[in-house]
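retry 2 of 3: previous attempt timed out while embedding pyridoxal-5'-phosphate. Reduced batch size to 1 and resubmitted. Inputs unchanged:
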Amino acid sequence: MALVEQAAGASPQYAYFDTAAAAPPVPEAVEAAVSYLQRTAIDGPYLPSFRREVYEKLEQIRAAVAGFLEAKTSEIAFTRNGTESISLVARGIRWQPGDEVVVPDTEMLSNVAIWRMLESDAGIRVVPFEADSDGMLDPERLRAAITPRTRLITFVALSNATGAVQPVAEICRVAAEADVLTHVNAAQAVGMMPLGFRTWQADFISACSRKGLRGIEGSGILAVRGHLIPALTPALAGWWNTALEGDGITLPDTAKRFEAGSPNVPAILALGAAVEVVERIGVDNIHRSVRALTDRAVRGIRGIPGAAVYGPIDQNRLGIIPFNIDGVDPRELTDHLESRGIIVEAGHFMATPILNAYGITAMARASMHYFNTTDEIDRLVAEITAFAGKEAA
Ligand SMILES: Cc1ncc(COP(=O)(O)O)c(C=O)c1O
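retry 2 succeeded.
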């Protein structure tokens, strides 16, 4: 209950179950972005003292994000979104032709496309890896998939398509034992569950700020382990991350070297405010609250006649519930629910390999956060039940 009280910003009009696409930003995040923009409109963005103040604030936010991800400040780069973070890793590693990258079938397009591109651009080989029927990755089977050519395993911590929370630390341990790098896509996990370099022992973590963190659109995070920073070529260069020295350039020796050009100041200020809110509430509290809401929603939806819920049905699921109801078009269900003040999403969620494995082309997805209430979940279940009943009649 305490968590719900702190969740100002939740809509009085809609029960919002689409955090997996983007959560409503916390008011503090909106305020941080808007007040900055208003000030630039009134005084101009480049007053020397204001600029200094803003850039100092960005560095404070970098330190706060680092603390949140159990990283050092020097290991954090601001990006425009989760996709850019993944691409910076993919484009930055100095590949040898024949290097293998393990990409499970659980992955969303942003953690597939860039690796496929590198097959033609850099001669790497994408090695597919099948999740089990719940969408879970088995670390021991992954161990068996590692060959002398395996360079990296890239996988999502919390799947947008199945809601499965992977055994990230175990996968990273198996990889490290074989001298294989790990990139963990935390786009859905960040702000939802405790995570970071210490917890996971990953080499790279990418994330975005508009989902679990409840920042605004337009900012992402890349965390790169300190010893790997010099080994990763910056894919972007220009003002902000380079300086001319004679005929050459110099780069900072921190992860700031992966950022180029004008930073997205409003979005980063919002990210900073959002991280403060998560820290204030406590990510453990958020995790516990989302877990309880998830269990209630899974129980409710599974109880609807003709319902199929995809992904794990135990504690390995967090916040995301994809489902179909026999004889119900998920898109029609979504439109109907909106007319009843309930927001869910339908589609393939750009995760077609796992949908293919389930033999479906689309599904509905309810995704929740700590601002949702048990009453909203009960309403969601009741409205789906009523719609499905009408469709069957
Ligand atoms: C699992 C997963 N990975 C990556 C992304 C990409 O993040 P962004 O939209 O910030 O580029 C998303 C966002 O939808 C996602 O759900």
